[in-house]
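Re-run with default settings, no changes from the original entry. Doing this only to confirm the output is reproducible before filing.
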Amino acid sequence: MDAVVRDEIAAASPQFPIEPGYPDRDAVWGKVERNVEAVRADLEHIMRDLHANPEEAFQEFHAQAVIAKVLEGQGFVVKQGAHGVETALRAEWQSDDFDPSTHPTVAVMSEYDALPGIGHACGHNVIAASGVGGFLGAVGSGSGRIVFLGTPAEEGHTGKEYMIRGGMLDGVDCAVMIHPFCYDLVSHAWTGRRSLTATFAGVAAHASMQPYMGRNALDAATLAYQAMGLLRQQMPPSDRLHAIISDGGARASIIPETATLSLYVRSLYTETLMDLSKRIDDILTGAALMTGTGVDVQWDNHPMSLPVRNNETLAARWGATQQARGREVLPGGILPDSQAASTDFGNVSQLVPGIHPLVKIAPEGTALHTTKFADAAITPAAMDGVIDSAVGLGQVIADVLNDPVLLQRAREEFEAAGGAISVEALLDEA
């Protein structure tokens, strides 16, 4: 796969030109760079402190305090526990002439939760510092409002969806953030994800003396598991399905009365995500019917994450900022869509135009969620990524505040792709 990617990179000759816009762009971009450089030490402190003190989802109190202290030190009022999530953050800046009817509001987001056992193996310490830097870099860059949002609980959870339901995106026109990686990409595919727990209920019996008196819940779980394996042949390439049988009984001499199957359903598109979910429901019902058992199906013990809808208008502007920083930033499509994970930023990107570009901090081919990537997230290359990302995020934000044509085109692209889609609306239609 890496050889294929290298061939694609060799064949690509990406260029991200900046169309004529507001006349003082060079001066504005220069100001953003100076603002970021002025807080370099603070950004490095965030990156290093969070890496040394990893915290899992909804437990990021130390990270919250570190980030809040930096923002407060720059003169901002920080709301902790924002939008109904205890470890979330919010700070904002607006120009003196801000008018919500005519001036845009841009949200910049930071993640800061870590993975169990391997810490910041997804580089959220880099994301946290970059988001803070992008916010501070863009302050004073134009007419409008900039909202910094600290968004916890991305790993295995959907912290942003809870914050959305708490009003996080009210009045927001577009949203930006970055993710560290082993390539520089303006955009990449991210799947939507739903989780499910199915508990089959049967009848216990002695497996030797009276097996015919039982109803085998493990048989039902096994049939469902096998049916999902067979389904994969008919699944489109956009879909992913992975499951475990987390409980299958206590002793081999007892017909299992209960068995539990846990799974993830993923897809690159909201329509196919919901369609695959319906097929899984049918499989579970069928497995119960075949074995004479019952089944209790619990979808989404935390809210689903939706596929990322990359706004290519804003992404191209990001590409221009990174070219100006000397990075070999690549267009979307260089990595195959089959190399796709999930993120709750998808829920944001389905409600407002958004970008989630990838920033190289590790050697090519270094996989996310590995100790090697965790090690990379504290290197000089990671710090370079923080500064380049902070400058790039700040410059994209500045362009949105100063160039109404850019935001208008981003909105037109967003509407052409289907407009706003919420998790709750999808579930109502299901």
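The CA atoms of residues 292 and 326 lie 64 Å apart. The radius of gyration is 24 Å.
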